[in-house]
Prior knowledge:
Helix content: 40-55%
Shape: globular
Low-confidence stretches: none
Number of helices: 28
Mean pLDDT: 96
Radius of gyration: 28 Å
Structural class: alpha+beta
Number of strands: 28
Amino acid sequence: MPGENLSRDEARERAELLSVDGYEVVLDLRSAVDEAEPAEGPRTFRSVTTVRFRAAVPGASSFADLIAPSVNSVTLNGRALDPAAVFDGARIALEGLDSENVLVVDANCAYSRTGEGMHRFVDPEDGEVYLYTQYEPADARRVYANFEQPDLKAPYRFEVTAPEGWQVWSNGAEESREGQTRRFAETAPISTYITCVVAGPYHYVTDTYTRGDLTIPLGAMCRKGLAKHFDADDVFLVTKQGFDLFHEIFDYPYPFGKYDQAFVPEYNLGAMENPGMVTFREEYIFRGKVTQASYERRANVILHEMAHMWFGDLVTMKWWDDLWLKESFADFMGSFGLVEATRFDQAWVTFANSRKAWAYRADQLPSTHPITADIRDLEDAKLNFDGITYAKGAAVLKQLVAYVGREAFLDGARRYFKAHAYGNTTLDDLLSVLGEVSGRDMAEWSRAWLQTAGVNALTPVVTSDAAGRLTELAVVQDGDEPRPHRVAVGLYRLEADGSLVRYARAEADVAGPRTVVADLAGLERPDLVLVNDEDLTYCKIRFDEVSLATLRGHLGDLTDPLARALCWSALWNLTRDALMPARDFLSLVLAHAGRETDVGVLQQLHAQALSAVTHYTPAERREQSGRDLAAGALHELRLAEPGSEHQLTWARFFAASAATEGDFQLLLGLLDGTARIDGLEVDQELRWDFLLPLVAHGALGEAAVEAELTRDDTASGKRHAVRCLAARPSAAVKDQAWAAVVESDALSNALVEATIDGMQRASQRDLLAGYTGRYFEVIERVWAQRSIQIGIDVVKGLYPMLQDSRATVDATDAWLAARPDAAPALRRLVLESRDDLARALRGQACDAAAG
């Protein structure tokens, strides 16, 4: 990987020297369906690229990017260059440039099995081959020669020759077809990382969006095997709602012609905003019954990617330092769009409880960084697609809307698009236009929120008199650097009917260590003070003792779903920060989660409860806590309305937490039909959910997994089966899983992920103990030899988190101390895992101290 890296300084120098006029990319993908694998080396396809570009300094030297097994020829301005002399496997040296240049590169590029570059997938169900590309941040060079950096934009023309019977799509609409060759319309100027090709026998559905004189052809596609599950009508509905909203508020028509959306297999990301050809992970096509929370997540992603057509594709950051200029805005616009334009009008609840949890974790890691990050190179860039760039950035933008006003914010966006269309920008470009429309000091706001790291905690300090009236309510701000917060402080009381409702609210600007909220003085003393009511700012919420006592007894009585979500989020942060014993959080879940009306919040609570048992509960209490959690899950499952999405959610949670012989017998009965819970339909996806814990605890074995795979012999079934097989409680199985992931590159990215997940079972700590030393022996080699995506999966996924002792922390520190010169991105991943483990140990100590 180091030879494939590109530094910010190199990119800046190249951008100062070169400007690109256009690309013509010709791909021959017929080799994708060859039955015979190559005798040696990877399976390849032919890629011929013609690049027209200018050099500001004639006679200067530069380089083009290409990662390919071999290059057939390189021609620069009519001069044939020796590929062996100019190509080193990642770069093509370009010497003696003219003012105007034409570079032609004929290469053999490799199909990928890691989701990077041109990914090739063979469907086990019918043997069909499917291709798609995925490039962010810098994998277009695996498919064609280019200048791989976001600020060297250019128009593209693609020509693709595909196997007989295939369909092919690219960013531009198909212009002509001759035999098996398709030619696509030239694109507007775009960056390399958002070019795209999708090819194969996909199932394809079409529709049209119209608004006034604007007509946008719509398409949606998936593998043939998923066609029977594909609810394209709902995808198009959300798509049209998004276009309606964004055209109205951005006042800039969608600039890229058609709008296709492809749901593709073995995808590393949630989705990718390739203009005119958006790609999504196919898991957003639901093979079984799912909750509305799943549909909301999909709709959010559809709108997130659509927002990128403006924030990211039309106007693009110069370098990955300003990645937030696209990702934070798209993340914010995803939730904003759901609330404003779709049936998911409670999306800010999901944002407060789920997306911000991701941000809070990332912002407390040793690798935390400002939203505008210091991205030295491409490896840094790959790791900065994180909770800070996405969720914290979106939360800060939500606060910015409160700070400058909705209309000023949107007016600033409109001016930004019109001023910088098809160009590249930095932080200052956006701040200048926002300052212009709002009259606010954006430099100070930026310094506080975009250019510093960390999260503040806001705690209410309540003083009352003998009559039970507030004499003072102050907000204390903790953190390395106090920031200005616009907050709403809500006062809640218990009513005679048992409900917990808000009776007073005041907005205040919290600045500095302590701020008095004067408007609330003289009111009756509340049962609950909720700082950051309505979730206006980005902070961790704390509680005074009275409020915490109220939540212990009455959290389920809190009537407002957003307020309830904020309280749950705050309680989880207290647990992670070792300020509340894990047993207390679990007690709150068992007491009140059954009354949670928002299924997305409930699913988050389930994940947090499992994490509390696995990581924050001391070993001596872990088994009993797990049994209590499973018993509570079964109790709520039996109480849930038959056929409801809450019943389905509790069923999945019961399976994930199952801990006793009785639990396993019930799961077996639900699988074979001898047991039944009224209204619960055990479809294929739920069958796999039930099978995994049975296999992991030894109640079923390989034969049961193979039988289930026969029943569901699909790509999804294969992933489930691989996960289950790796979860078997056997030392030999764990060795096989380790070898398959670490010592071989035969598995695709999706199967690597499934194998790691199956191997790392919380109930199998003893079986996994021997891998700690082996992990630290191999990770540097894995990082050097495997693709960056697989390297990330292995380094994060196989870290010995379940060996939760000081000895594991010490082993991590020893590795870090011995390798100060290891790749910075690799060290970051190890440091983050160490921090998670140290936090877990502090949480266990907090729980143990509770008695």
